[in-house]
């Protein structure tokens, strides 16, 4: 599954991602094996360029069972979101455009249970009111494993760019084309300081995080 975004026309409120409210209307939980085929079909239908198969998603989940969430209303599947949880080396490689995001090397991914250096939004699809379930996903990703990690994404359409902007993302200077960045509120420095883009994780100080085109 490629790193593409798709939003819902109903989801237009301009909130920061970490301030999205939770809801009881939509459930957001790690995908189970019985729904992988349905989710893969939805992604292929709704996201331009995606060719993910059930087998490919299953292989991805074997590395980290918490990397793909489904958005449901009752049993009805309304969408899903997949993440790459990067370690420090993976964050550097992302900014340098130094690995294939369609087939990310395992050495750049955080091990299950390991603290995450960056959260890359690999794919997002949401139909109708499914997008309001993102608040529930965001709550999970405020947990200790993910707390220090900023989000990164690449939109696939003008609508995707608008959707990312509504969530508080902004383009970031990097060698990776059209990379957008969402800095967690607790990682932000006071406005009186104007630093270059930098890593906000527990990576080594020498870790590259301000690459430019």
What would you note in describing this structure?
This protein has 5 helices and 7 strands. It has 213 residues and is an alpha+beta fold. It has one domain (17-187): Aminopeptidase, CATH 3.40.630.30. Residues 1-14, 192-202 and 204-213 have low confidence and may be disordered.
List the main descriptive attributes of the protein structure presented here.
single chain; 213 residues; alpha+beta; Aminopeptidase; seven-stranded mixed sheet; 5 helices; disordered N terminus; N-acetyltransferase domain-containing protein; transmembrane
Given as residue ranges, the uncertain stretches (5+ residues, pLDDT < 50) are 1-14, 192-202, 204-213
What is the alpha-carbon Rg in Å?
A: 16 Å
- How much helix, percentage-wise, in residues? 10-25%
Fourth-tier CATH superfamily name: Gcn5-related N-acetyltransferase (GNAT)
The end-to-end span amounts to: 25 Å
Tell me, rounded to a whole number, the average pLDDT: 80
Q: Which second-level CATH architecture applies?
A: 3-Layer(aba) Sandwich
Count all strands and give the number. 7
How many distinct folded domains?
1
CATH topology: Aminopeptidase
Return the structural class. alpha+beta
| Beta-strand residue fraction | 15-25%
Name of the level-1 CATH class: Alpha Beta
What's the total helix number?
5
Sheet with most strands: strand arrangement: 1-2-3-4-5-7-6
Shape: globular
SSE order, as H and E? EHHEEHEHEHEE
Biggest β-sheet description: 7 strands, mixed
């Amino acid at each position: 599954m490629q790193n593409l975004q798709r939003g819902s026309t109903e989801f237009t409120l301009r909130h920061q991602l970490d301030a999205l409210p939770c809801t009881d209307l939509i459930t957001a939980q790690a995908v189970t094996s019985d729904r992988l085929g349905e989710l893969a079909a939805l992604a292929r239908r709704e996201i331009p360029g995606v060719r993910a198969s059930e087998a490919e998603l299953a292989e991805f989940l074997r590395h980290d069972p918490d990397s793909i969430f489904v958005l449901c209303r009752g049993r009805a599947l309304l969408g899903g979101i997949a993440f790459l949880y990067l370690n420090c080396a993976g964050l550097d490689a992302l900014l340098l455009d130094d690995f294939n995001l369609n087939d990310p090397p395992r050495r750049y991914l955080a091990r299950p249970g390991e603290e995450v250096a960056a959260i890359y939004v690999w794919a997002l699809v949401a139909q109708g009111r499914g997008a309001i379930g993102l608040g529930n996903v965001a709550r999970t990703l405020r947990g200790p494993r993910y707390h220090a990690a900023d989000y990164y994404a690449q939109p696939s359409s003008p609508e995707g760019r608008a959707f990312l902007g509504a969530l508080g993302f902004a383009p970031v200077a990097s060698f990776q084309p059209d990379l957008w960045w969402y800095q967690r509120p607790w990682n932000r420095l006071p406005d009186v300081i104007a630093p270059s883009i930098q890593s906000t994780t527990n990576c080594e100080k020498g870790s590259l995080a301000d690459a430019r085109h």
